[in-house]
Design goal:
The protein is mainly α and about 270 residues long. The protein has one domain. Helix content is about 75%, strand content about 0%. It contains ten helices and no strands.
Amino acid sequence: MDVADGPAGTSASWAVLQQCAFYGLVTCLTTGLGVLPLHFFSVKETSWLGIGNAIAAGMMMAASADMAFEGMTTNIGAWQSTFGMVVGAAFVLVSKHLLQAYQEEDVTVLHRTGLMSRKGLLVVAVMTVHSVAEGIAIGVSFSTAAPPHLGLLIAASLAIHNIPEGFAVAMSLVPQGCSLRKAALWGIFTSSPQPAFALLACMFVNQFEVLLPVGLGFAAGAMLYVALVELFLEEALEHCCKTTAACTTAFAAACMHSIYVWLSAGAH
């Protein structure tokens, strides 16, 4: 039985929906792998802390640029993605302002009760919201309107892409005393919207395809702000020299973009 036989606007079989949900779940779980590098070096050493944040910043910058490019090259046009980027950056700014309204005493209490600092909360919030756009991207790519095998390639790309995102989450939590296990779980939590929105987008691809450029732009703008300001300017440069931070960020961005180009080439 096809979903197309059901509600109007649907366009995928149950088998495709199951496949879409499965790969959405896989991309979600790979985010937890981002904590693995922290098994091999101590974030208490300031130089490693700076380099780790520079790596996370570079990967997120490249992912943001690639995500914005995907949004701008859709059939609908570029301005929707640009608008989304502005809204995404504004979302982070407003969220940061609201979080900074708390006094340091409140942050201490939150930390002692097992939650997180303002910076950690900001990174987790941004990553969670931007995962909605990634879930929509998976769902649209698995629809019957998409080229064959595109869904698998997009899912593989996001699964790899989510590992540095999990690393960025871990780098915002572990230095504050969060355990690696909890950091991994928080990383997985930030990608939890992906399976649900992948399934919804695959079922109602015509509706979600219109929103995809804005969603991708929003995700790109929010991630770019966090990567550039929070991770690079405020963390990486604080713990290591400018040359090391800049070179590490550039190298990480180049590696992340190379993965994107390789996977994109396989989709054509």
